[in-house]
UniProtKB/TrEMBL annotation:
It comes from Anolis carolinensis (Green anole). It is a multi-pass membrane protein. Pfam families: L6_membrane. PANTHER family: TRANSMEMBRANE 4 L6 FAMILY MEMBER 1-RELATED (PTHR14198), TRANSMEMBRANE 4 L6 FAMILY MEMBER 18 (PTHR14198:SF14). The chain crosses the membrane at residues 7-28, 48-70, 91-109, 159-178. This is Transmembrane 4 L six family member 18. The keyword Calcium does not apply. GO terms for cellular component: membrane. Belongs to the L6 tetraspanin family.
Length: 201
């Protein structure tokens, strides 16, 4: 019972990071609080992959809802007995949690690439990726930041928001991994049979 409650809590914990991933990804479209950079397509290309909105956002919310439903004791029976039903529910939960790791992992990778590449901004040479050849060194050397004159504070904006997306995606991966472990432990070490036992004649 304790392990079941733990798994249910993990499912609920996926909702806040997913919500904030959506919010943060949307904020990336408005550097300096203005929408003109979005309409003129003067944004880093990694915001157009919608990693925070779709993958670690909407898709994770859907997975969280499905996992919460599967955690309920009132779930419709799919087998001849309750033990079998619980086993299949836990197996489906493992599959969904693994999908969650894939979705949040995709968001983590893209957010990391966006952070390393740096923002798309106006420099003395025009609009370009001013830090793409620094291999991320600009993150620790603020003297690079003055190369971007527009949007205002775009470097800080991108660093903070992409870092939050990385942290949230990492948290989702951890929660999904713990969910997989909890469900596998229930299947392999619990009292629920994995396969339907044939009826004795």
């Amino acid at each position: 019972m304790g392990l079941q409650k733990c798994g249910g809590c993990l499912s609920c914990l996926l909702i806040p990071p997913a919500f904030w991933s959506i919010v943060i990804n949307i904020l990336l479209y408005f550097p300096d609080g203005k929408s003109l950079y979005t309409s003129s397509n003067n944004l880093t290309n990694y915001v157009w992959y919608f990693e925070g909105i779709c993958f670690s956002g909407i898709m994770m919310l859907v997975l969280a809802v499905l996992l919460i439903i599967l955690d309920q004791d009132t779930f419709h029976k799919c087998c001849q007995n309750e033990s079998c039903t619980r086993s299949y529910r836990r197996f489906i939960s493992v599959v969904l949690a693994l999908l969650g790791i894939a979705f949040s992992g995709y968001s983590l990778i893209l957010s990391t690439l966006g952070l390393v590449q740096g923002p798309y901004c106006r420099t003395s040479a025009g609009w370009e990726y001013a830090f793409k050849d620094t291999a991320g060194r600009y993150l620790t050397d603020q003297t690079f930041w003055t190369q971007c004159s527009e949007p205002t504070y775009v470097v800080e904006w991108n660093i903070i928001l992409f870092s939050f997306l990385i942290a949230l995606s990492g948290l989702q991966i951890l929660i999904c991994f713990l969910k997989v472990i909890a469900e596998l432990k229930s299947i392999l070490c619990g009292t629920y049979p994995v396969f339907v036992q044939p009826a004795l004649i």
